[in-house]
Write a structure and sequence with these properties.
A six-stranded mixed beta sheet has the order 2-10-9-4-7-6, with no helix packed on it. Strands 1-3-8-5 form a four-stranded antiparallel beta sheet, with no helix packed on it. It folds into three domains: 149 residues, Sandwich (Immunoglobulin-like), CATH 2.60.40.4060; 115 residues, no CATH class; 181 residues, Up-down Bundle (Four Helix Bundle (Hemerythrin (Met), subunit A)), CATH 1.20.120. A hairpin with a 2-residue loop joins β18 and β19. α1 runs antiparallel to α6 and α2 packs antiparallel against α5. Helices cover 30% and strands 25% of the residues. It contains six helices and 24 strands.
Amino acid sequence: MSSVGLCCLFFISVSLHYWVPAGCYANGKVTEACGNMEPHHGVPGQTIPSPYLLTTNSTTFSPGDHVQVILSGTSHFEGFLLQAKGTASQGSAFTVGTFTLTDPKRTQLLTCNKQQDSAVSHTSDARQKEVVVVWNAPQDSPNEVQFFVTVVAHYSVLWVKLPGPVIYHHGVTPYPPQSTVTSPPVQMTTSPSLFRPVSITTFGWTMMPMILSLEHAVISEPECEISINMFRLTNQHHLTPLSGLSAVSWRLTDGLIQCTFSRPVKLANPGRYDLDQEYFLFIANGHAQYGKIWKHSRQPLISTHRKRITSPPEILTGSRAPTIMKLHGALMLLAWMLTGSVGTFIASFYKPDWPNQTLLGQKVWFQVHRGLMILTVTLTIVAFGLPFFYRKGWSKHAGVHPYLGCGVLALSLIQPIIAAFRPLPDSDRRYIFNWAHWGVGSVTEIMAVAAMFLGMHQSSLLLPQPWAMHVLIGYVTWLALFRFLLLVHKHHIKKCTKTLNR
């Protein structure tokens, strides 16, 4: 492979890794997000408390008044979207009023819901800690107006539609009382161990972990409602609600929601499992926002061995990456970071070596190259089948990675077919084979490296970040540089040979 091809390999691989299907609006032109205020970043909003506050210099207003609105934080942010809306208690959430800028270099006005200057956003991804704007109350303003803000700390770290202060028309009695600062989401604190010990109660009842549904849990408000439900996972995308929980209670202590509940060890209902049997325990956690429960974005945490719920409590260990998926990643890395690369090196730079020696009737470089590439194809075939065996089909949430894997497998199988029909070395059509063999091999290697970059973040194969990514980038960089040096050396040898032959 030439140095140009290697540079393209590295550039395309890194570019594909950082590519996402949605656009990045570093210039703040985010009018597409006016409705739900969700950036198209392909990641869910954070559920931990926001480090940002939205405040106003007044709690009341009259038509034509100018209210100062300040977005500030204890850490920097790269983007934001600020709007004023009618409150939900009035039966709508329409955009209200306009804004005036105090810093046109860092902020800009947007047209949302066909209303000019009804929203404010950033002008670039420059980091900042405070934004000050002025909200202008319209003549037909409602009795209550609430400010909302979406804040992007980094592309993949963002808080969506944080509710800010509510201000009231002069003469309107605030009900219920509202906070004048942004209400942070609920902070769910986790224990460093996999499971907390579970207490066993009498009369055949036991405490056990279940799927929790947290609704309307806003700890900064005077009221907090939490519901605890039990479900059966009938397939990968459907939960069937079940009954049978009792003694349900919860409490809020130091920002941690603690829930307790019970269910009988044995249930008469068909299909309901008994708690005195041994099971592998799965824990999947996601975030809930505005009463909606979102799907977990990480592979469930699975206990390393079966556990009997009614047995004495113990601390369990577990893993998020199944062994079969770890094996898939290991085999693919072995195939395309070792055997495939070495085989390509041999064919590209070691043909002149051992000119008078043969191995099993063929030149040494050819036998080594062919053996390594056959091993590469074999490892690829085995590794390719493992995710399908684990998933029992196609993975719908793996993004571009499986498509690249299919391409790598297809091209890997085409290469030996091309080699089997290669013309003789002195044939006039030999150059066609040489270019086809080199081109297919180069494209296969590029796709394989891109698939490795995208596979690093798959939920079923969690590798330590960012070190794993740094190691892979370092390896590709070293590979490109080493091939470039060998290419320079090869041209230098050819030049010296021509000089000696003159």
